[in-house]
Amino acid sequence: MPTEAILSTARQFLGVDPTVPITLEPIKRGASGRTIVRVKTPVHEPFIGIHWTEEREDNSQFIPVGHFLKQAKLRVPAIIHERARHRVVLVEDLGDIDLLSLKDRPFAERLPLYRSAFEQVDRLFYAKPPKDFHLMPPFDAELYRWEQQYFFEHLVEDFLGQDAGALRKNAVFTDLAARLGTVARHLVHRDFQSQNLLVKDGQVWLIDFQGLRRGRQEYDLASLVFDPYMDHSQQEREALLQLWEDVGDERPEPTLFHECAAQRLMQAMGAYGNILKNRGDQWYRPHIATAARLLGEVTAGTALETPLAPVLAAIR
């Protein structure tokens, strides 16, 4: 059992016998194939225990990527004990405050935290791993196409009950994947959104970074600016882009940025549909409508608008 593996690893790390009480408090996270708990004991400050399965290839990347990002001086939780053979790692506890939990705060109060997040991802984009460092396969046309198929299967077919055959055959989507997949120079987080940005001591820290790979900067930026969980207004999105321009010295090209946003939103909607079907977690249901509205906005007047219209209309 995952919790038993975490518990035995915690006792090994602490060097205590079974009489010392240890409490495991579940932490809810969206990623599949992982069990995450907060470990509490009277003999040590709280820390986080993570157990992963082989369900997803990137889960096993957490430990090496965590070490690399820490060495690259990014704000990520410190790894305090690892037991990779048992698929368990113990990490620093950064608390429970993420950007999503601050959604109801005035936007002006949250802007400094977005600056902090942008500063971290800017450092990430240009971090240089060792030549022999193993990364997940880069964002290429095949991976973008996989994300689209994920959207067709779990959102269009499973959630809406529509036939996705015409969408699968439509060259507009394959052309988008090919176009976005021509460049993969920078390291990207791949899931750069409000739940994966924890706030501690007034700064943003990155978590859930095991999907690190090479890709387009615009994909990570679009993930945060068009985050369905936060549902930023047009004015707020403009403020975030201005903030990024100040941090990164350039603004993303609008057409490319919106194409990356469309790709990311389709991926997110596929994930929401998958979680609803296979885990029954209704928390994700309202975010489908938000993501659909944003997807309609970024594809308006483009070749994607017409084929996506029946899908978005059914969600509305």
Helix and strand layout, with pairings?
Blueprint: H1 2-14, E1 23-26, E2 34-41, E3 44-52, H2 62-71, E4 79-83, E5 88-92, H3 107-125, H4 141-159, H5 165-169, H6 171-180, E6 186-188, E7 197-200, E8 203-206, E9 213-215, H7 217-225, H8 234-248, H9 254-279, H10 285-299, H11 305-315
Helix pairs in contact: 3-8, 4-6, 4-9, 7-9, 9-10, 10-11
Describe the structure.
With 316 residues, the chain is α+β, with helices and mostly antiparallel strands. It has two domains: 2-92, 2-Layer Sandwich (Phosphorylase Kinase, domain 1), CATH 3.30.200.20; 100-315, Aminoglycoside 3'-phosphotransferase, Chain: A, domain 2. The protein is 48% helix and 14% strand. The protein has a five-stranded antiparallel sheet, sandwiched between helices. Strand 7 and strand 8 form a beta hairpin. Helix 7 packs across helix 9 and helix 10 packs antiparallel against helix 11. The N and C termini lie far apart (41 Å). The mean pLDDT is 96.
Q: Note the main sheet.
A: 5 strands, antiparallel
Helical residue percent band: 40-55%
* Helix-strand string: HEEEHEEHHHHEEEEHHHHH
Strand order of the largest sheet: 1-2-3-5-4
Q: Indicate the CATH architecture of the largest domain.
A: Alpha-Beta Complex
Mean pLDDT over the full residue set:
96
Q: Give the C-alpha Rg.
A: 20 Å
Helical/strand content category: alpha+beta
What count of domains describes the coordinates?
Answer: 2
Structural shape:
globular
Tally of extended strands? Answer: 9
Beta-strand share of residues: 5-15%
At the fourth level of CATH, the homologous superfamily of the largest domain is: Aminoglycoside phosphotransferase (APH), C-terminal lobe
Q: So how many helices?
A: 11
